[in-house]
């Protein structure tokens, strides 16, 4: 029997205890999880404990004393993605992980990067920078006419015709709830033996991610969003295929390589090749605890509840005059984006802030293709997570409705 409680798929009691474990739930209605999720208490405590230990006994000594906890970052992340700990490199952010991955590809003039019209802004800027420096060609696969995301068949045809050096796809962009079919694209990449990089920044911690099922060679994410880890943490998954083929970051350091003789270094065998000597250890430990926490809550349960809360929000907002919902696709993720008549972006966000509701703005610059296609200059993004309640969703929708009336009167 399905639990029909408002906390689905949790019991009301479980949801209450998850919220009690989240200090921020007492002070804000946090609908900015696509920016940064609220820390759970065990994550906060583990990080504070490590900082205190560093202050008490020294930074290197604290890292040595907490080796097990540090190592668990790799085991926990591997458990989350269905790979081995040796395939995981810690990174300071998703972008840091992404640029390390890109730097490992020996691009030459005329190489093609095949991507989508919804790939993340910083990834698109990185491709343009590679074009400027190395003369690569950037090809954007077309979207389906109905706006439901990239046309996989058209993308596969481009793969066959252009033999790209890299196929790069963002699973869910920053600027809408669109979910791209990364596993379907991955099947074509595997069949054609093309290098495949997936940006899963908005999906780790929100959906189950299986790198084998996706068929990617490289995958990047931050820990601070739906995984609810600390700021300044992320990771890069590097497949065995890529490690065996000898890919290494352009700037490899004394942690990623052994300096075996004056004129030669040897990259280490594992994804540690993509890491640096220096780590923010409290963030590494905090990320490990956050990932264990998500696994314990159950990512499959999170994946049921989180997009369902967003669907409820879209449903409520659909009836608000002057609001245009912008998310496309059959089953969008928990990034709810909309524009509202009569408001400028900053005052609108400030009006939400004043009601104790955290949100984020997206601008045309974040999504040159998508926002141009939708003819929008800016949008408000509301991104609930599993620890939010249905009552909060309704309160947020009521706040938008109230503000739409205020706008009409101005
Ligand atoms: C889809 C996507 N990719 C990458 C990033 C970049 O993440 P970070 O800020 O950790 O570099 C973001 C951040 O919003 C994102 O939404």
Task: List the keywords.
4-stranded antiparallel β-sheet, 7-stranded mixed β-sheet, binds pyridoxal-5'-phosphate, alpha/beta
Structural overview:
Helix content is 43%, strand content 15%. It is of the alpha/beta class and 410 residues long. The radius of gyration is 22 Å and the shape is globular. The termini are far apart. The mean pLDDT is 97. The protein binds pyridoxal-5'-phosphate. Pyridoxal-5'-phosphate is lined by residues 93-95, 120, 122, 170, 173-174, 199, 201-202, 222, 234. Pyridoxal-5'-phosphate binds next to helix 5.
How would you concisely characterize the structure shown here?
The chain is an alpha/beta fold and 410 residues long.
Write the layout of secondary structure elements.
Layout: H1 12-20, E1 29-30, H2 41-57, H3 59-65, H4 67-81, E2 88-91, H5 94-103, E3 112-116, H6 121-134, E4 137-141, H7 152-162, E5 166-170, H8 182-192, E6 196-199, H9 211-214, E7 218-222, E8 234-238, H10 240-244, E9 257-261, E10 264-267, H11 281-297, H12 299-318, E11 323-325, E12 336-340, H13 345-354, E13 357-358, E14 360-363, H14 368-374, E15 378-382, H15 390-409
Parallel strand pairs: 1-13, 3-4, 3-5, 5-6, 6-7
Antiparallel strand pairs: 2-8, 7-8, 9-10, 11-12, 12-15, 14-15
Helix pairs in contact: 2-3, 2-11, 4-11, 7-8, 12-15
The structure holds pyridoxal-5'-phosphate.
Pyridoxal-5'-phosphate is lined by residues 93-95, 120, 122, 170, 173-174, 199, 201-202, 222, 234.
């Amino acid at each position: 029997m399905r639990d029909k409680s408002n906390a689905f798929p949790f019991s009301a009691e479980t949801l209450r205890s998850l919220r009690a474990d989240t200090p921020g739930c007492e002070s804000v209605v946090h609908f900015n999880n696509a920016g940064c999720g609220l820390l759970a208490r065990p994550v906060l405590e583990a990080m504070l404990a490590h900082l205190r230990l560093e202050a008490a006994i020294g930074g290197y000594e604290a890292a040595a004393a907490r080796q097990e906890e540090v190592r668990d970052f790799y085991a926990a992340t591997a458990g989350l993605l269905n790979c081995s700990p040796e395939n995981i490199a810690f990174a300071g952010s998703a972008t840091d992980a992404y640029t390390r991955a890109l730097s490992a590809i020996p691009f030459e003039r005329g190489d093609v990067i095949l991507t989508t019209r919804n790939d993340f802004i910083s990834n698109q800027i990185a491709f343009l920078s590679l074009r400027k420096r190395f003369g690569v060609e950037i090809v954007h696969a077309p979207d389906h006419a109905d706006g439901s995301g990239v046309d996989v068949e058209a993308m596969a045809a481009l793969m066959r015709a252009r033999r790209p050096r890299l196929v790069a796809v963002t699973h869910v962009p920053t600027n809408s709830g669109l979910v791209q079919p990364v596993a379907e694209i991955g099947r074509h990449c595997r069949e054609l033996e093309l290098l495949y990089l997936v940006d899963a920044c908005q999906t780790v911690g929100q959906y189950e991610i299986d790198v084998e099922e996706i068929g990617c060679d490289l995958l990047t994410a931050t820990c601070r969003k739906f995984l609810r880890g600390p700021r300044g943490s992320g990771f890069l998954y590097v497949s065995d295929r890529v490690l065996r083929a000898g890919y290494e970051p352009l700037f490899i350091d004394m942690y990623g390589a052994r300096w075996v003789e004056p004129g030669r270094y040897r990259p280490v065998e594992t994804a540690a090749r993509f890491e640096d000597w220096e780590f923010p250890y409290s963030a590494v430990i905090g990320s490990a605890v956050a990932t264990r926490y998500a696994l314990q809550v159950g990512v499959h349960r999170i994946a049921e509840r989180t997009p369902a809360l967003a669907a409820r929000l879209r449903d409520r907002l659909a009836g608000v005059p002057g609001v245009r919902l912008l998310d496309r696709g059959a089953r969008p993720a928990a990034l709810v984006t909309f524009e509202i008549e009569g408001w400028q972006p900053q005052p609108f966000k400030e009006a939400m802030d004043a009601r104790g509701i955290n949100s984020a703005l997206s601008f045309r610059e974040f999504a040159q293709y998508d926002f141009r296609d939708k003819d929008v200059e800016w949008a408000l993004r509301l991104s609930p997570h599993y620890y939010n309640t249905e009552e909060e969703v309704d309160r947020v929708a009521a706040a938008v409705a109230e503000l739409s009336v205020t706008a009409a009167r101005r």
